[in-house]
Specification:
Number of helices: 11
Number of strands: 16
Largest sheet: 16 strands, antiparallel
Order of helices and strands: HHHHHHEEEEHHEEEEHEEEEHHEEEE
Structural class: alpha+beta
Radius of gyration: 30 Å
Shape: globular
Strand content: 25-35%
Length: 416
């Protein structure tokens, strides 16, 4: 899912503009600026007489023919210079922060900030700039007595945005990191945003879905050369929604609303039958379809939403296949007190296996033609209200979700 850059755009994105936003209108501005620089060269000096002009023009033509490569280099440099002027109207801040990252570093008045050397400050500022995507205020620092590392905290570790870093006490280099940030969609670095239309188009989704919000997680363990950062962008417009996930700068999962025309009629027909088997009622109208391509898991997922309460999800992958039908608007009792919660959990944990089997078997038989007699029952104590029917001599499993009255509200069959 890598997004292709034109060669000259790759040149533009070199330092100091690597993380600055760059759009088509800026591209046109750059091209106009380059053209102006090339054509305006003859006006730099005082205007010569006619013979001098002819001599200069002949000399320039000979030079252009004999040294074509230097013209390309000059043009590229001019383009970079023009970009510095015309970059989304941001003449100063991105360039200053790129060249002088310390200019954006935010430090509190806490006395522990005195532990930070200039090298440490440089590391903190660059790490948040390059990986986290924003600068958070550093409010705490402490040096470890054994390792000699300096631990720093920024933001609020109990909320959605924070940075925890461990720095080498001698060199100031980053040793470990745990960071998280949230931002509005349009605040995400442009190297991600520019990929959105193409990635959505690649799964037949709406390329005009708008960025709404983004999340970023950064992890680094001792021994790693640099952090790994995970970015999730959420998209939406009046017609649908979607999301894109990146590991470092590579898109690994793309999801978006697609037309029902892209889904096989057999899948839609089977989905309706599954809902009718689960609910005992006719399936409501198909409301929307979401398609997900996950290169990390090597699988594709189609999710069909019927009415306001039913989901049918089909997952096909290299290593497994899975099919789920679910009532996601199931009626869960309102539990006000701790005693109510404990009683509800106790009912789910002690509900007789025979009752669960009696309710689940006709639904599973109707959906998949499977008899549960040979399947072993396993209650999932880590996920209250879930149970698994497992066929010992085969790898496939059937997982069900049940309510306190033994009503089945979800069934998933897996062929691992």
């Amino acid at each position: 899912m890598r997004f292709k850059d034109e060669d000259w755009e790759k040149e533009i994105r070199k330092e100091p503009f690597a993380s600055s936003p760059f759009q088509d209108q800026h591209k046109q501005n750059v091209l106009r600026q380059v053209e102006w620089m090339k054509t305006g060269e003859e006006h730099v000096n005082d205007a010569p007489d006619h013979k001098q002009k002819q001599h200069i023009m002949k000399r320039n033509r000979r030079t252009a023919r004999s040294r074509p490569r230097k013209v390309v280099v000059v043009t590229t440099v001019a383009a970079v210079a023009a970009a510095a002027i015309l970059w989304n109207g941001q003449v100063l801040e991105p360039i200053v922060e790129r060249v002088y990252p310390l200019s954006a570093l935010q430090l509190s008045d806490d006395p522990s900030m005195n532990l930070l050397t200039s090298e440490m400050k440089q590391t903190v500022a660059m790490s948040m700039r390059d990986y986290l995507g924003k600068q958070l205020e550093v409010h705490y620092a402490k040096k470890g007595p054994i390792t000699g590392w300096v631990y720093i905290e920024a933001g609020d570790v109990n909320k959605s945005e924070y940075a925890k870093m461990w720095l080498d006490g001698k060199t100031g280099a980053l040793v470990e990191a745990d960071m998280r940030s949230e931002m509005s969609g349009n605040e995400l670095e442009h190297r991600f945003l520019r990929q959105v239309p193409g990635l959505l188009k690649g799964i037949n989704s709406d390329p005009t879905l708008k960025p709404i919000s983004a999340r970023r997680y950064v992890k680094m363990k001792q021994g790693q050369e640099k952090p790994v950062w995970f970015t999730t962008l959420f998209l939406e417009n009046g017609k649908g929604s979607g999301s894109i996930e990146w590991t470092r700068d590579e898109a690994v999962s793309v999801s978006g609303t697609v037309s029902s025309d892209t889904v096989s009629t057999d899948l839609i027909t089977n989905a309706r039958s599954s809902i009718e088997a689960l609910s005992g009622e006719p399936a409501p109208a198909l409301k929307s379809v979401t398609f997900t391509q996950n290169d990390k898991q090597l699988e594709e997922t189609t999710a069909l939403y019927f009415g306001d309460r039913y989901l049918v999800r089909s997952v096909g992958g290299r290593y497994s296949n899975e099919y789920t039908v679910m009532d996601f608007q199931r009626g869960v009792p309102e539990l006000v007190t701790i005693e109510d919660q404990e009683q509800y959990i106790e009912k789910l944990l002690t509900l007789d296996e025979k009752i669960i089997r009696q309710n689940a078997e006709p639904i599973i038989q109707k959906m998949f033609g499977i008899d549960l007699d040979k399947y072993v029952f396993e209650r999932n104590t880590n996920n209250i209200g879930m149970a698994t029917f497992r066929l010992e001599e085969m790898a496939n499993t059937i997982q069900v979700r049940y309510e306190e009255d033994a009503r089945i509200t979800m069934i998933t069959i897996s062929d691992l």
